[in-house]
Specification:
Blueprint (H helix, E strand, L loop, with lengths): L2 E4 L6 H18 L2 E2 L13 H8 L13 E3 L3 H4 L10 H11 L12 E4 L17 H14 L5 E5 L14 E5 L3 H10 L2 E3 L4 H9 L3 E4 L11 E2 L1
Parallel strand pairs: 1-2, 1-3, 4-5, 4-7, 5-6, 7-8, 8-9
Helix pairs in contact: 1-7, 6-7
């Protein structure tokens, strides 16, 4: 049995966590043994030890393990147009079991969580991941028709004035929060709207409820609703 791990990443928590999720799925598909390499750095101002603990993914206790395959990300999974062949029910349950094996922040469960990518994303920086507010304005109108009694919580970064055109009844904002609170709020929400982001994509994999998916390089699971 070949051994496989993910190493050499220093991007955000979402990107690294998604790569590890994909690696676990890839190993299950190919009958490899996944060896977890803990995160050594992330793009968020949080303790790396706390983020490693947060995922619940156990590191091997074996000494001097020989790793046959070391990659930054498993492209077969990341670029698959049919990711369900890797993210089987059994794999997703394993990821959920890991995730819930450690303490999670105390939060109020959202009726609807919308992830809007901002902070390092705007019309100039990482503009390929920028979605303008007008999209979300129409999306909120759409969601209110389907779920008229639901509260909508927008998770993002920046100032409330950046979202003036999205302010309306039953719409609330959680800005610049601890990434663990943001992530867990998306995992547990009754309805989750993803962004062009590995953070909300990873949360969607763990979420057991309704997902509305915004298309980008990582294809959706079959049960998700494509916007």
């Amino acid at each position: 049995m070949k051994t496989y791990t993910i190493q050499g990443r220093d991007d955000g928590f979402g990107g690294q966590y998604q790569a590890v999720m994909a690696a676990i799925a890839y190993c299950d598909y190919n009958n490899y043994k996944y060896i977890h390499t803990p995160f050594i750095k992330t793009g968020h101002d949080v303790s790396i030890d706390e983020m490693n603990h947060f995922t619940g993914i156990p590191s091997t206790e074996e000494k001097n393990v020989i790793i046959d395959v070391i990659e930054a990300w498993p492209k077969d999974v990341h670029l698959s147009r049919t990711p369900d062949i890797y993210y089987t029910d059994a794999v997703i349950q394993k990821l959920r079991n890991y995730y819930y094996s450690t303490h999670k922040p105390d939060i109020n469960i959202n009726d609807i969580a919308i992830h809007i990518r901002r902070g390092d994303v705007d019309t100039v920086n990482n503009s390929d991941r920028y979605i303008p507010n007008i999209f979300y304005k129409h999306l909120i109108m759409f969601l209110k028709k389907i779920y008229p009694s639901y509260k909508i919580v927008i998770h993002s970064e920046g100032k409330i004035s950046d979202f003036d055109d999205l302010i309306s009844d039953n719409v609330y904002f959680k800005l610049n929060e601890d990434v663990r609170k943001t992530f867990h709020a998306m995992v547990t929400s009754n309805v989750l709207v993803t962004s062009i982001s590995s953070l909300s994509y990873s949360a969607a994999i763990l979420n057991t409820n309704t997902i509305f998916y915004v298309p980008f390089m990582h294809s959706p699971l079959r049960k998700w609703n494509i916007l």
